[in-house]
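INPUT
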Amino acid sequence: MTSIAEKTVLDRADSLCRARGVRLTAQRRRVLAILCASARPLGAYEILDAMREGSRALAPPTVYRALDFLLEQGLVHKLESLHAFVGCNHPEHPHSSQFLICNSCGEVTELEDEAIARSLGSAASMSGFQPQRRVVEVIGTCAGCAQKGR
Amino acid sequence: MTSIAEKTVLDRADSLCRARGVRLTAQRRRVLAILCASARPLGAYEILDAMREGSRALAPPTVYRALDFLLEQGLVHKLESLHAFVGCNHPEHPHSSQFLICNSCGEVTELEDEAIARSLGSAASMSGFQPQRRVVEVIGTCAGCAQKGR
DNA sequence: GTACGAGACGTTATATTGTATCCAACGGCT
DNA sequence: AGCCGTTGGATACAATATAACGTCTCGTAC
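OUTPUT
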């Protein structure tokens, strides 16, 4: 199932990479497509399984290398608390997002909240700390699941 | 080396657990002591190695079970981005802390910043999300290492 | 004091996640 | 064509975490 939204994400990834002078190869594009097509975050080995379908066998390093590239380019994010990966909603500008992770239905929402970013930044600078990477994940119950009483 | 500070942490853990009607057994106390004695976060297998010294061999589940208990009681925290654990500075009240992790010297600072907690909370409630656990880790360069030009 | 039950622990095996290494294939360049 | 840097294939392995099951221990009730 290739939705229109997914297609534009891939197209945008193409132009982004061209503009940056890096190569979105077939393998990398494939990993990104799999992540974008999934409603949920996927583990590296789930991606591996998805890539194996209909094609020859692949090994873990293939997926991890593609993921490393996509992470560097900001095209995907890693959810540390899940050991899983998601496609990014808005890869054009560098950003540090936050994630709401429902442990009932598995849904993940990517936020880009200025207030959180600011409070994190000022807490860091008060300590003289220079941030490079931010991991902000809130695990809990999403609105839908809360209503259903789960 | 058993510092005074470490001793009071263990003593406070004892009384906390007694007050809560849960058992801080010898194994659990040992894991907590090892974590508190360490200047850095420790992986589960590092704790396991430390516990093996001078005593009989232990298996991973022993350590993971002790860690699960200590996490539940808020006596230790898990650093998801490092797959490692640290003793908590102030276990008396339930809290969601934030961590500054220096990737040069490995030092970890636990913060309890109200502004961050508030901004996270309001972002979650705007989405109708009910938080249960918060993972906030900022990876970067600490003040000391930044000065040394690392 | 003894029997019971829940929780804690020991032990083995295994699942899951992630890397090191080395070599082959490809692509752009001169 | 020949060179060289990047990408990918393949094997092996390291690191992190859990399942399953039996045994022991401790508090409690009788």
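end of record. The beta strands of chain B are 76-79, 84-87, 98-102, 108-111, 130-141.
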